[in-house]
Specification:
By secondary structure, the protein is mainly alpha-helical. It has helices spanning 4-19, 22-42, 46-83. The protein has one domain (4-83). The protein is 87% helix and 0% strand. α1 runs antiparallel to α3. The longest helix is centred in the C-terminal third of the chain and has 38 residues, at 46-83. It is rod-shaped, with a radius of gyration of 19 Å.
Length: 86
């Protein structure tokens, strides 16, 4: 079993590593939304329009989940920093 200071240090490092992924995923799914819009607007077949709608809906769901995940991660990180000795 590790000591409390080591535990806090490890959690702080792990949390900082995954927090930096949030902007990357947001940009990626923004591009996916744009691709979905292009499929919907520029396509003339129902299947391609359905793919466009699906891409947009999937991206919106990921945006919502990602937003709440990022919010909780920031809160968790702030609590870790608050209890960090340095």
């Amino acid at each position: 079993m590790e000591n409390p200071q080591q535990f806090i240090k490890n959690k702080k490092k792990r949390t900082a590593e995954f927090i930096k992924w949030y902007p990357i995923t947001q940009k990626f799914f923004f591009v996916v939304v744009i691709l979905g819009m292009l499929c919907l607007l520029l396509s003339h077949t129902p299947n391609h329009k359905a793919v466009g709608i699906t891409l947009m809906l999937l991206s919106i769901c990921v945006f919502v989940l990602d937003h709440f995940s990022e919010e909780r991660a920031a809160f968790y990180y702030s609590k870790i920093v608050e209890h960090s000795p340095n």
